[in-house]
C-alpha cells in the first residue's frame, strides 16, 4: 500500500520504517528539515536499538523516503498522524497544536476513500473533532483512531509485532470501510496472531490513556508500598516478588525505585485528569493526583537518602550519578527521574557528576549546569557516594570490588533496586535501596 506518516519524531520515524518493513511504500513527512536530512541519511535523530539499521535497509530498498513537503502525501491510501501531544506550558492539559496543524494541512491533500489514521495520544473527543476537519477538506475521506502502545527501547519490535491493534472508527463497527484498510496495512502482524479490536472513537482514545494510567498506578502502588516498607524495615523487593506470583496481580511493572518518567506516563496521566475535569468527571480520576504525588516523592526520597548516606550533609560531597535517561536503552531525558534528582542534589551543595551511555547530549540541553562525564570510571573517581538511577546493563553489572578501587567512600544508593545488596555489603560498601532494609 502507499502510506504517508505525518510527523517523524519518536513515534513517526519508527512507524514509517516499520510500515516499509511490512512491505508498504512509505513517505515520512516532517516539518523540521534537519530531522528529514538525518532520517534520509539513514540515522534516527534519537537512540533506539536497531532503528538505524532498519532505516538504511528500507531506504536502500526504495520503499521509504522522507520529505518536508505535505503535498507528497497525495495519493497515499492511509495517512498516519504521528505528531507529538506534549503537556501545555503551565497546565496539565495536552497541547493539541501539532495534531490540529497536521490534520488541517493534510486535509487539503486528501482524495476520496483515503483514510487518516491517528496514532498520537490525544484527549478523548479529539478524533470526533478532527473527523470534521477531514470531511471539510475531503467529504469522501475517513478518519480512524489507531493508538500506539510501543515502548521506547523496544519500539521496532513493538510496532512490527504489537500485542494488540485497536481501531476506533466512525461507526464503531467491523463493517466500517476504515477497518478493511487498516487490516490491509497490518496484514502481517494480524496473520501472526495479533488480536485486533474495533470500537468507537472515544473508546479507542480512552484505551490508550487508560492503559498508561494503569501502568503509572501500578508503579506508584509499589512505590507506596516501598514507603511503608521504609517505615517498618520490610523489603519491597521481596514483597513485589511475592504478590506478583498471583497472576491477577502479575510481576511486571512492579519494580519499586525512583519512579516513572519519560515523555508519556507523566504527561498522559496529567492530561487525562485535565480532560476528565472538562467533562465533569474529575472525581473519577482524583486518584491519579496521588499516583503523580507518590511518583514525585520518590525523587525527593533519593535526595534525602543520599544526604543520610553522606553523614547528614550534601555540602561538597562528590556524588556520581549513574544514568541520565528516563530508562535504559533510550537517550530520552524528558522528565527523567535521574536528572531531576541529580539537579536537586547539586542545588543542595553536592558536587555532582552524571554519566550515561547514550543520553548525555540530551541531558546537556536540558540541564546545562550539570557536569556530565561520558566515561564511567572518570565519573566514579573519588566519589563520596554512587547513585544508580537508570538501570543500564553496564551499571547493573558493576563489580563492587573494582568500583571500590575508584571511589573515596564506599557508599551506594541503588535507586532501581537492581544490585545484590549482600554482594555489595560483603565488599565493604554501605548499600541503600529504596524500600529495602
Ligand atoms: C510507555 C508505555 O509503557 C507504552 O505502552 C506506551 O506506548 C508509551 O508509554 C507511550 O505512551 O508512548 P515508555 O514511556 O517507553 O512507554 O516507558 P515504560 O517502559 O512504560 O517506562 C516508563 C517509566 O516507568 C520509566 O521511567 C521506567 O523506569 C519506569 N518503571 C517502569 C518503573 O519505575 N518501574 C517499573 O516496574 C516499570
Overall pLDDT metric: 97
State the helicity in percent bands. 40-55%
Number of domains: 3
Question: What percent strand?
Answer: 5-15%
Summed up, the helix count is: 18
Structural class: alpha/beta
Main sheet specs: 8 strands, mixed
Q: Could you tell me the CATH topology label of the largest domain.
A: Rossmann fold
Number of strands: 13
What's the N-to-C terminus distance?
A: 57 Å
Widest β-sheet, arrangement of strands: 3-2-1-4-5-6-7-8
Rg (CA only) = 23 Å
* Small molecules bound in the structure, each named once: uridine-5'-diphosphate-glucuronic acid
Structure characterization notes:
This protein is α/β, with parallel strands linked by helices and 437 residues long. The chain folds into 3 domains: 2-194, 3-Layer(aba) Sandwich (Rossmann fold); 208-292, N-(1-d-carboxylethyl)-l-norvaline Dehydrogenase, domain 2; 297-433, Rossmann fold. Helices cover 44% and strands 13% of the residues. The chain contains 18 helices and 13 strands. The protein has helices at residues 10-21, 33-40, 51-61, 97-107, 126-137, 155-160, 177-185, 187-191, 201-232, 236-244, 265-278, 286-309, 337-347, 360-366, 376-380, 393-396, 400-404, 421-426; strands at 2-6, 25-29, 64-67, 78-81, 115-118, 142-145, 165-169, 196-199, 318-322, 351-355, 385-388, 411-414, 430-433. An 8-stranded mixed beta sheet has the order 3-2-1-4-5-6-7-8, sandwiched between helices. β4, α4 and β5 form a beta-alpha-beta unit. α4 (97-107) runs parallel beside α5, α11 (265-278) runs antiparallel to α12 (286-309) and α12 (286-309) packs across α13. The longest helix has 32 residues, at 201-232. The relative contact order is 0.09. The model has no long low-confidence stretch (mean pLDDT 97). The structure holds uridine-5'-diphosphate-glucuronic acid. The site of uridine-5'-diphosphate-glucuronic acid has 21 residues, from α9.
